[in-house]
Design brief:
Layout lengths: L3 H14 L3 E5 L18 H4 L9 H6 L1 H12 L10 H11 L3 E6 L5 H5 L6 E3 L2 E8 L5 E3 H9 L14 E5 L8 H13 L2 E5 L11 H7 L3 E5 L12 E3 L3 H9 L2 E3 L5 E10 L5 E8 L4 E9 L2 E12 L6 H11 L3 H7 L6
Parallel strand pairs: 1-2, 1-7, 2-3, 7-8, 8-9
Antiparallel strand pairs: 4-5, 4-6, 10-11, 11-12, 12-13, 13-14
């Protein structure tokens, strides 16, 4: 069996040689942000099998008690305070390199958007928990509006327009997937020259079918997951290590120098309010720190331009890089205050 370092290096070479990378993410990429998966050892449904009813459309529509329990669960979800992790940021780094063709996610937490991935690159096959919709009239609204009503005392808020049942704008069991969304997922899989499947056991169709579609079209496949998947036999590389660290290395979070040595590692990314600007803090192999500011091209959302950079001397510390960036990047102070504390 190849060593872990060899597998990461092989995956990195595939990424470096690719020009149309499609990333498929499942619940596993968000567990490092504190959002539990559903069927894992510590999954929501593993610990509380009755909770699965809240995600089954027939039970949700027919039983007010199920809806009340679902609204309490939404209110208390760890997703509201979760921050994007190194895995999410690595996908953004891949996009900045101009290699990301599409990002297909089974997740409903919108952490990819919050990390800075361009919305037009993202295919949300299961919708978003940050939106609410009426089952009767189809009216949509931000989830925050419905949760405010729950906090105010409504245990099963209904649509303000027609009185219909409200639910998160996500795909529940028993609910049809959106054909146009699935068609786009399969189309980008067929167009990929490399597909990276992350944090998913690849058991749920039709999305899992992206892997054989890509492979049959000639794409290489990399799978990063903590347990075996149904598609491992189709993969060129299979990696069973923590997702954030692996993606940071293979997608662009680690820049490789001559002779295979790591030249620098992106430690932390901070995005502006409107997610069109980003600052990356990095550490070089010699121990020095620095930062780079990027701006998204308004005409081409997949392209990023370098607008500022600052390299500190050998043995500098992260706090010095942060202080330098705060002095040169006007929007950064407010963004740092909003983001989770980072300790290198």
């Amino acid at each position: 069996m190849p060593e872990a370092d060899d597998l990461r290096a092989a995956a990195r070479r595939l990424v470096d040689g690719a020009s149309r990378v499609v990333v498929l993410t499942g619940a596993g990429i968000s567990t490092e942000s504190g959002i539990p998966d559903f069927r894992g050892p510590k999954g929501v449904w593993t610990k509380n099998p009755a909770a699965e009813k809240q995600s089954t459309i027939q039970h949700y529509l027919a039983d007010p008690d199920v809806r009340r329990a679902a609204w309490r669960s939404r209110l208390d979800s760890p997703a509201w305070t979760a921050e994007p992790n190194a895995g999410h940021r690595a996908v953004v780094a891949l996009e900045r390199r101009g290699k990301l063709h599409a990002l297909v996610t089974q997740n409903i937490d919108e952490l990819h958007q919050r990390a800075g991935s361009a919305p037009d690159k993202i295919v949300e096959v299961h919708g978003s928990m940050r939106r609410v919709m009426c089952w009767q009239c189809g009216r949509g609204a931000p989830m925050g509006e419905a949760l405010a009503r729950v906090r105010a005392g409504e245990d099963d808020p209904h649509c303000l327009a027609c009185g219909g049942i409200l639910k998160s704008d996500t795909i529940s069991f028993g609910q049809s997937l959106v054909p146009e969304v699935i068609d786009r997922a399969m189309t980008v899989a067929a167009e990929a020259d490399l597909l990276i499947a992350v944090g998913t056991t690849l058991q749920v169709m039709p999305v899992a079918g992206m892997v054989p579609v890509a492979a049959q079209a000639g794409a290489r496949v990399v799978i990063v997951n903590d347990q075996p998947t149904a598609m491992d036999a189709l993969a060129t590389v299979v990696i069973r290590e923590p997702i954030g660290a692996v993606l940071a290395e293979i997608c662009g979070g680690v820049v490789t120098g001559s002779g295979g040595a790591r030249a620098e590692q992106v430690l932390h990314s901070v995005h502006s309010d409107v997610v069109d600007r980003c600052v990356d803090f990095f550490r070089r192999a010699d121990g020095s720190f620095g930062y780079r500011e990027f701006r998204r091209d308004p005409e081409d959302q997949s392209r990023w331009s370098l607008t500022a950079a600052y390299d500190l001397g050998v043995h500098a510390v992260y706090q010095q890089a942060l202080a330098a960036a705060l002095g040169h990047v006007p929007w950064l102070a407010a963004a740092v205050a909003r983001s989770a504390p980072f300790v290198p």
